[in-house]
Give the backbone structure.
Amino acid sequence: MSKKFNRVVLLGTLVLLILIASITIVIDPYFHYHTPLEFLKYPLNMDTERYQNNGIIRNFSYDAMITGTSMTENFKTSEMDELFGVRSIKVPCSGSSYKEIDSMVSTALQTHPDIKMIVRCLDYSLLIQDKDYSYENEERYPAYMVDNNIFNDVSYVLNKSIICTADVNVLLNTISGGDSVNFDAYGNWSKTSGFGKQAVFSTFQRPSEAHEEQALTEEEKEMVLGNVEQNVIANIKAHPNTQFYLYVPQYSVCYWDQLIRNGQFDAMLEAESLQVNELLKYDNVHLFLFSNDFEITTNLDNYRDEVHYGEWVNSRVLQCMKNGEFEITKENYAAYQKEVRDFYSNYDYDEIYE
């Protein structure tokens, strides 16, 4: 009797687990197995970017992509599609490294080899960094969402949080008639943030002391070159038919003040030079540097902190890419960097804090 009872319990448990797993497999809130079902409306949540980006990249139909850190969250794919005549996705990943971003680029190129263009942000804050540094190495990283191991999918299909939150959110969003897979809104925090001096100074504190300038060390030079070669250039070389629109964003004047007072101004410009000189070797690279977009960088009404700006600046970036404004070439780079060096090294930063 006890053996029969145990078999019944085990069988019943197995059936129950299969039924529970089937809910997530069918709804698939993070697109791990399939694209959105037509009769459901899927919200995109900026808090779960690392869970849903891989599924979007693998399973959606597109020929262009926007990717990068939180600096890319306010882009609108509708604007990119109209400007460039493409069908794009946006897969931002807040707090990501060059390596993590490049992992997404690699997946896109592997699953969509005919992709026309990739818009990718290259943050100053991530440049002088070990080439293998990545949140992917952290224990909390949801590796089961990005690998090809079906056996660890149990962490997805029997995940209490996903069942009770993600699956339910899809159903509630469907019932309420919400948007489904809106890439313009995905990750976009612009409409819910405050901008201007008060907002910037609520998180930014000017370094109290000024330090002497420090040159880039040989170790840091090797770090920059390794980071760029492995996590940017490798895919550029491997996919000559894909156009890479790479850009360094418009960090505010407060960022440059902090850089100078910390004695890191010269080192950052040298690191930038190393990256630029490598990237300009490739015909399928369109490189845009916006540090001399002084109309934007000196107006703190554009910023919520020392680096993050509103969606109107993201729109400006796309428009400039289309028009070739702020594009860097071998011929104009020296003049660009001199302009940036002269402007920020002579700027009256004290007036910002008055």
